[in-house]
Write a structure and sequence with these properties.
There is one protein chain. This protein is of the alpha/beta class. It folds into two domains: 172 residues, Rossmann fold, CATH 3.40.50; 92 residues, Pantoate--beta-alanine Ligase, Chain: A,domain 2. It is built from ten helices and nine strands. A hairpin with a 2-residue loop joins strand 8 and strand 9.
């Protein structure tokens, strides 16, 4: 696997593959890779002859009080994992490569960026839209692969690609979970043993909502019960438990069509998010 850090090398590699008639899949990440990320690489290999992974902890999606400076990093370990997974190229740029001197563009997101994460992390989706648009343009990839764990983010990226007529297909992979149901996340590294044992309550709470909705409960009833369960499990603050439509991310009062149950809550100083299709 090649490791490149400048845009020219990335573009040259992809251009050579395209000249040979090969499709290219892009797997954007912020690093500290786990089995969930590697599932994205595996899906990329199914969709294309070549897979490019990226590692970039994107500063434009972090607020000043968030964990940009301490976000977990392990580039050497990530490279070994990507090589073993059959990735062809890693693009690991610096901030200066992604946002060179004079860079002045910002993206203001509406639609699926509104509410939930958009309320609690208002800077996030503009930054996600910006970095993904930049990665799509720099790579020239044919398809990009994202995990469903960050479902609202997926909806935002799809909206950006459609609205800006970006020539790339967006494909998703179901959330990869630990044996007890906890969604794999790089930020799980922040959990100590006691918090890790409690963390599974997020998956259990969202599963409860899904079952209650299938039984005919309203979203308000089911989500309220889940918030109470999270509090009882030791979460100090519940940012939201909510039901949104699977297609347009609209609020739903009940299970009138396929949806997603989404939750975000604080376990000590660690913020966990998850979602389930229902």
């Amino acid at each position: 696997m090649r490791v490149v850090r400048d845009a020219a090398s990335l573009k040259a590699a992809v251009a050579a593959w395209h000249a040979a008639g090969e499709r290219v899949a892009l797997v954007p990440t912020m690093g500290y890779l786990h089995e969930g990320h590697l599932a994205l690489v595996a899906r990329g290999r199914e969709l294309a002859q070549r897979v490019v992974a990226t590692i970039f902890v994107n500063p434009t999606q972090f607020a000043p009080h968030e964990d940009l400076g301490r976000y977990p990093r392990d580039e050497a370990g990530d490279i070994a994992k990507l090589e073993a997974a059959g990735c062809d190229l890693l693009f690991a740029p610096s901030v200066e490569v992604m946002y060179p001197p004079g860079f002045a563009t910002r993206i203001s997101m509406g639609g699926p960026a509104e509410g939930l994460e958009g309320t609690h992390r208002p800077q996030m989706f503009g930054g996600v839209a910006l970095v993904c648009s930049r990665l799509f343009g720099l790579s020239g990839a044919d398809v990009a692969v994202f995990g469903e764990k960050d479902w609202q983010q997926v909806m935002v990226v799809r909206r950006v690609a459609a609205d800006l007529a970006l020539p790339i297909e967006i494909v998703t992979v179901p959330t990869v979970r630990a044996a007890d149901g906890l969604a794999l996340s790089s930020r799980n590294a922040y959990l100590d043993a006691e918090a890790r044992a409690k963390a599974v309550a997020m998956y259990q709470a969202l599963s409860h909502v899904a079952e209650r909705l299938k039984a005919g409960a309203t979203a308000a009833e089911a989500c309220g019960e889940a918030e109470a369960r999270l509090g009882e499990a030791g979460f100090r603050q519940v940012d939201y438990v909510a039901l949104r439509s699977e297609d347009g991310f609209e609020e739903m009062s009940g299970l009138a069509k396929p949806g997603r149950v989404l939750g975000a809550a604080w376990l000590g100083q660690v913020r966990l998010i998850d979602n389930l299709p229902v």
